[in-house]
Amino acid sequence: MIRYQLAKGGQHHAYAVVDSLPIELCHYARASRVKRFRDVADIGYCASKKMFFYGFKLHIQITERSLPMGYVVTAASYHDRIVAEEVMTQLPHPYTLGDKGYVSQPLQEKLYREYGIAFWTPSRKNQCTVSPKKWAQWMRRKRKIAETTFSVLTDLFRLTAIRANSVDGFETALDGILLAYTLVVLELVEQ
């Protein structure tokens, strides 16, 4: 609740970025015999790392100043597009950027029509309408904030090293990490 109220004050930011981060619970080789979170976690594929993993996926919306807004944790096999609406409507931001995993014309139209969210994604090579190279470069530069935030969350706050054995413990640890990160970001923004 505290993090939510702090993030709610971040509505004055220029844009937000939505992306997902794999949270690996064990090495893929041990996935068949692991008992931890067997009923909620599963096997997914991380395209950027080109690997399969057992665990969860953190879908998160981040402002251009690295302030986490809304997030959803799903099983690893969930596609980004499935939970995009839920993530972006927790604290709707009028301008949101996504990667190619979120390309969906119906989703973009629904977000704009129902919530007033202009959701921009890069074009795929096989799409009828291809965006100009300058637009793709601009999107890539603006989306780097998500990769930087993920790097800080995994390296300094050890987000991918949560060792809880219950769903409640995992949620508590994740909320604590995101609250601490939010407080650090807000402190840096004020300086």
Overall description:
This protein has a single domain (2-190), classed as Nucleotidyltransferase, domain 5 (2-Layer Sandwich). Helices cover 40% and strands 23% of the residues. It has 5 helices and 6 strands, in the order αββββαβαβαα. The chain has helices at 2-8, 80-90, 105-115, 133-155, 167-190; strands at residues 16-26, 42-46, 51-63, 68-75, 95-97, 118-120. Strands 1, 2, 3, 4, 5 and 6 form a 6-stranded mixed beta sheet that branches.
What is the third-level CATH name, the topology? Nucleotidyltransferase, domain 5
CATH architecture annotation name: 2-Layer Sandwich
Average pLDDT over all residues = 89
Low-confidence stretches: none
- Please outline the major beta sheet: 6 strands, mixed
Query: What is the CA-atom radius of gyration, in angstroms?
Result: 17 Å
In terms of structural class, how would the helical and strand content be classed? alpha/beta
Strand content: 15-25%
From N to C, what is the helix and strand string?
HEEEEHEHEHH
Bulk shape: globular
Specify the helix fraction band: 25-40%
What is the CATH class? Alpha Beta
Number of domains: 1
Number of distinct helices? 5
How many distinct beta strands?
Answer: 6
CATH superfamily: Ribonuclease H-like superfamily/Ribonuclease H
| CA distance, first residue to last residue | 25 Å
Organism: Paranoxybacillus vitaminiphilus
InterPro entries: Tnp_DDE_dom
Domain Transposase DDE: 10-164
Pfam families: DDE_Tnp_1_3 (PF13612)
